[in-house]
Specification:
This protein has 193 residues and is of the alpha+beta class. Helices cover 24% and strands 35% of the residues. It has two domains: 76 residues, no CATH class; 106 residues, no CATH class.
Length: 193
């Protein structure tokens, strides 16, 4: 059940993407709010990954959402290994892949993250898309403290400096390939199911 949410939010949740990865949005997509009530079969508890295809199906059925994907080169950052090499701590324990502990407010902390997961988690702090180009395999425990806003009075360095000093990685500004979700059609009024 989702109460008083925009269709833009539901699309981002269903497809696991950010705002800047959706094109072809009608002007009402973010401003109109909906209540969506749906139950999974057999009252099972779903993980986020298990929920996504079901939510995509619901959006297709109730809002007649039609989409396609395109890869587009956009201004962003490539996550690369800094001079001196990576300073990563291999995952210890048996946490599920991509297990997130805390992200936000100048802190990034997680267990069992791949470099692809780290790149995705860096995107909000970096302010642009981040693509992994480290060629580093495996999973790592990540802990990073940084100033949550540029120019803010903080005891912590910027995300760029913290990333290099703490993890031996850096963000290089460049055009990066980003998979975009293009909305071909969506109904403003959902059908009841």
């Amino acid at each position: 059940m989702a109460l008083s949410v925009s269709l833009a939010f539901l699309i981002k949740m269903a497809y696991g993407i950010d705002d800047n990865q959706v094109t072809g949005k009608p002007d009402w997509l973010e401003s109109e709010l909906f209540d969506v009530v749906a139950k999974p079969e057999s009252d099972i508890t779903l993980t986020r990954d298990e929920l996504r295809p079901r939510l995509q199906n619901l959006l297709q059925q109730r809002f007649h959402l039609l989409t396609h994907r395109e890869t587009k080169l956009v201004r962003g950052y490539a996550l690369v290994v800094a001079k001196g090499g990576a300073k990563l701590k291999a995952t210890k324990g048996d946490h599920p892949p991509g297990y997130r502990v805390y992200v936000g407010g100048g802190k990034l902390e997680g267990l069992n993250w791949s470099m692809k997961t780290l790149a995705a988690m860096l995107q909000p702090a970096a302010g642009l898309p981040v693509v992994d180009q480290t060629d580093i395999e495996g999973s790592y425990d990540i802990k990073l403290d940084f100033a949550s806003e540029l120019g803010a009075d903080s005891q912590f360095p910027s995300i760029f400096t913290a990333l290099q000093e703490t993890l031996g990685l850096k963000l290089e500004s460049k055009k990066v390939p980003v998979e975009m979700l293009v909305i071909d059609h969506v109904d403003r009024t959902p059908t009841e199911d």
